[in-house]
Write a structure and sequence with these properties.
Radius of gyration of chain A: 18 Å
CATH architecture of the largest domain in chain A: 3-Layer(aba) Sandwich
Number of domains of chain A: 2
Largest sheet of chain A: 5 strands, parallel
Strand content of chain A: 5-15%
Largest interface: A-B, 35 and 35 residues
Oligomer: homodimer
CATH topology of the largest domain in chain A: Rossmann fold
Strand order of the largest sheet of chain A: 1-9-6-7-8
Shape of chain A: globular
Structural class of chain A: alpha/beta
Number of helices of chain A: 14
Chain lengths: 320, 320
């Protein structure tokens, strides 16, 4: 399914390069290779899964439209993928999502429905209700095989690009919310680069995946908002993604919010890329938790770049 | 020479992707494709020319070392290229260059010699004196065939990538200082994509190349400093680069400093890349001078991303 998704994505998703800097290598004490999915269409890897899911629908179903719920990046990925297929898209977003993400999603042609996060229906309930009312196909952000397959195409690229860099063994660190990207990459590496091991990275206080990998069952976060790493905050790993991660991933890593912000500032200064805090936790782990990583080289996926200008400006000047 | 340089650069220089955003297309009124050379090693295209020149030296000459004078980006490009070849490098820099560029050049292993820009010897005289004293090979920033050949490899990539995007005709806008990159790209396009036309872009008040292309002779800027676009401020087009540009380039374009800063902010917001003001003038022309550009698509080379955090923070919040 991942290889089939890669064929459908060919010429539509961007093949992001692998970046590096001798300054980052020095901090980490090993070679650091960065996969900048912030450079993907819509500013995050989510376009891959969105395109994969929309392109996999039969034409009649697709014409009726799709619906997604998302704190922002999945929204934009699905919105653009739907627009490029000529399909309507309805996006359910929490009303405290960053304004840039709400604006972008609307500008990409989607109808945005805001919901109030703390009370009322869960976002899943809102999504299910609207999709059945209008005959839309719900595209879940991670617990959806075609979405996982699309995100997994990142792993096929990493396998090939790492080999070209002479890196055959080591850890691949992935910013992890529900686990769609992490499980997709893990399967792609299993097939194409068995010496590389996927490892999820999460912010402190939202380490449901790390704890789930330890306990062997699906663990839940106490809080579901209130992190600068909003893009990767989910209640728990998915029912489809968790068994994959459990079988294939190395132990999870956890970084502080400040470490994520320092990684944002270093990605600005040394790689010239814009990464949002949630998209920088894998790089933060590569740089600041070197003792928990194995191998001469580490690969970190920077998953998204949709950050408000004020927060980015504060971060790069504070940690300059 | 460009193709030979491309072979020497293979596996050393980064092949930067072509980026785009529907939001930028809407501003420009046509497709905008961006070649982000800010993602090149050392944060600018200058690494290509530096590597090309250092790698072309015979081993004995290279062992004695190289010397370069530069406001910063050429310095870093030569410093890293020399370090990776195991050759010593001396870099002559003006003492008002951005601190980040001075620091980076030193950290890349080069010996930095600062000179006082307004008075005293010209930087050319300083460079010539030190290189003859120590037996170093001077690598000029643009009027140097192997440097032009290295920068021209950007054009070979553009030709191939534009074709893959279905773009066979149109303008390729290039941030232009002395003309090394512009003349190199112009020759590469002549050979590989004759429907694409190179056009230099400069900041207002420093439009020596645009005026030279009109007059047919080498024109000079009145000022040689005092621009936020410091990276591309040179006294005049080169004696080698100007005849090439005169033969192959379309008319030059000129943008205001404010337009360059707005392009920096849009590249942050829409492309998730960090571009310095001088590296954004081509994108600024693509976005804000659409009436002076021909074709359904335009390609803009963002040439560098070595900008201080304070200036970048001010720019993205002011023009958000």
């Amino acid at each position: 399914m991942i290889r089939a998704a890669a064929q459908r994505l060919e010429g539509h998703a961007r093949r992001t390069p692998l970046l590096s800097s001798p300054f980052l290598d020095e901090i980490a004490g090993r070679r650091v290779l960065v996969k900048p999915e912030c450079l993907q269409h819509t500013g995050s890897f989510k376009f891959r899964g969105g395109w994969s899911a929309v392109s996999a629908l039969d034409p009649e179903t697709r014409k009726r439209g799709v619906i997604a719920f998302s704190s922002g990046n999945h929204a934009q990925g699905v919105a653009l993928a739907a627009a490029q297929h000529g399909a309507p898209a309805v996006i359910i977003m929490p009303n405290d999502a960053p304004q840039l993400k709400i604006d972008n999603t609307r500008a990409l042609g989607a109808e945005v429905v805001l919901y109030d996060r703390p009370g009322g229906e869960s976002r899943e309930a809102v999504g299910d209700r609207i999709s059945s009312e209008r005959g839309l196909t719900l595209i879940r952000p991670y617990d959806e095989p075609q979405v996982i397959a699309g995100q997994g195409t990142t792993g096929l690229e990493i396998a090939e690009q790492a080999r070209a860099e002479g890196v055959e063994t080591g850890d691949v660190l992935i910013c992890c919310g529900g686990g769609g990207l992490t499980s997709g990459i893990a399967m792609a590496l299993e097939a194409d680069a068995p010496g590389l091991r996927a490892r999820p990275v999460e912010p402190e206080g939202f380490d449901d995946v790390a704890r789930s990998l330890i306990s062997g069952g699906i663990e839940t976060n106490n809080r579901q908002s209130g992190s600068l790493c909003d893009a990767i905050i989910t209640p728990s790993p998915g029912e489809i993604t968790f068994p994959i991660m459990s079988r294939l991933c190395g132990p999870g890593l956890v970084v502080t919010e400040e470490e994520a912000l320092r990684a944002v500032a270093l990605a600005f200064k040394r790689l010239k890329i814009v990464v949002e805090p949630g998209g920088a936790v894998a790089l933060a782990a590569a740089l600041f938790h070197a003792d928990k990583i194995e191998g001469d080289a580490v690969i970190a996926v920077c998953t998204g770049g949709n950050v408000d200008a004020d927060l980015f400006a504060d971060t790069i000047t504070k940690y300059d």
